[in-house]
Automatic annotation (TrEMBL):
One of its GO terms (molecular function) is hexosyltransferase activity. This is Glycosyl transferase family 1 domain-containing protein. Residues 193-351 form the Glycosyl transferase family domain. Transmembrane segments: none annotated. It comes from Halochromatium glycolicum.
Length: 395
């Protein structure tokens, strides 16, 4: 209706601190009324997200106290359609195109004649792609009105899938930079004379911790008595295997596995570290890199992380490496920790680079995508499209 605020809804699996910071920034735009709809508030890997703050954001939780995976596709579809009917938004933002109710949200938009925006951090290099899957993505994306990509490589992938470049903005994968920058400044541990490499991630295969340990052992042999230690935050299915590898490599005194650090405790770890390492063999983005940079750390980041192309400026704030080559990572660790490197300058460069990748960038990108979508009528779906959407939404 002319003169009224455009109602924009974000449908996602569950809202973490990252999502709240992004949506809070976007919600400050006076042109929009905003609502966040999460499927559940319990994460399959972390349990109940009890310390989460919604910061005044209007929100709904469809299945409180549950993990979204514990709810059938048919239940999710019905709940999503029921909630969106009640809210009746003008625009629905969807996390990707495959899981967590995204297809159900897209189906609702096409049935009700509303605009749909996709938030995507997928890259062409994430996994081995197949023709059937890529064809389905193309068909689904043809029904979407606008997009916000994580960064440059995610934007290129959307365009390669047939999405018009003029309808894709950038800035989806950001964090609350101020939380980490201020947390480091406030940390009582910031002046502690400790130098170590820091990594943080779930202990699962794609995070590549076993090769990180190999690289670290190589680095230690070359660095000798001046070698740094390594701290790996997190936990998961590979913990026992990692502990066995640490013992086999004789690294028991040099590697620490303290477990998970919560959102409020992370700045203390960043405050003491000398460099952040993210070795994943595949990673759509890598938000922990944003965190480390906001905290003022140099970074060593796998070239197969989506954030590497935009956030890592080799020689300026760190470097990238082939995650399948432990010797390459060892060389970079040695060069950074013991070469002619000004770590403080690299840390300042990280802060300068990440300053352009905060919640305001998400807000601007979403505003651009919504405006571009509203400039034309919502996409139309054929009877075959509706059959496909219904089938995929019920999975």
């Amino acid at each position: 209706m002319a003169g009224s605020k455009t109602h924009v809804c974000w449908l996602l699996i569950n809202a973490s601190y990252y999502h709240i910071a992004r949506w809070s920034a976007f919600s400050k735009d006076a042109a929009f009324r905003t609502t966040l709809v999460e499927l559940a508030n319990r994460d399959a890997g972390f349990g109940a997200l009890q310390t989460k703050q919604y910061d005044g954001v209007e929100h709904r939780t469809l299945f409180p106290g549950q993990s979204w995976r514990a709810v059938s596709g048919a239940q999710r579809r019905r709940a999503i359609h029921r909630e969106l009917d009640a809210l009746n938004p003008d625009v629905v933002c969807l996390n990707g195109w495959s899981i967590g109710g995204a297809v159900a949200g897209l189906e609702w938009c096409r049935r009700r004649g509303r605009h749909a925006i996709v938030f995507s951090d997928s890259n062409a290099f994430d996994y081995k792609r197949n023709v059937i899957g890529e064809t389905l993505k193309r068909r689904l994306l043809a029904l979407v009105d606008g997009g916000v990509a994580a960064g440059s490589t995610a934007r290129e992938y959307l365009i390669a899938l047939g999405f018009p470049g003029e309808r894709v903005s950038v800035g989806y994968d950001v964090v609350d930079n101020a939380h980490f920058a201020q947390g480091v400044r406030d940390s009582a541990l910031a002046s502690a004379p400790s130098r170590f490499f820091l990594a943080t991630a779930r202990f699962e295969p794609k995070k590549n911790h076993l090769r990180l340990l190999e690289a670290f052992a190589n680095y230690r042999r070359r660095a000798g008595d001046s070698a740094w230690s390594l701290v790996i935050l997190g936990d998961g299915v590979l913990r026992a295997q990692m502990e066995a590898r640490i013992a086999a490599l004789g690294l028991e005194r040099a590697v620490s596995l303290p477990g998970f650090a919560d959102y409020r405790g992370l700045p203390d770890w960043y405050a003491r570290a000398g460099c952040f390492v993210h070795p994943s063999t595949t990673e759509q983005w890598g938000l922990v890199v944003n965190e480390a940079m906001a905290a003022g750390l140099p970074v060593l980041v796998s070239a197969r992380c989506g954030c590497a192309a935009d956030l890592v400026h080799p020689g300026e704030n760190g470097d990238t490496f082939d995650p399948y080559d432990p010797s390459a990572l060892a060389e970079r660790m040695l060069r950074l920790a013991h070469g002619d490197t000004d770590l403080s300058a690299m840390g300042r460069a990280s802060r300068r680079i990440i300053a352009d990748w905060g919640p305001q960038r998400f807000a601007a990108g979403t505003r651009e995508a919504v405006s571009a979508a509203l400039a034309s009528a919502p996409r139309r779906a054929s009877p075959l499209d509706f059959m496909l959407l219904r089938a995929l939404a019920g999975r």
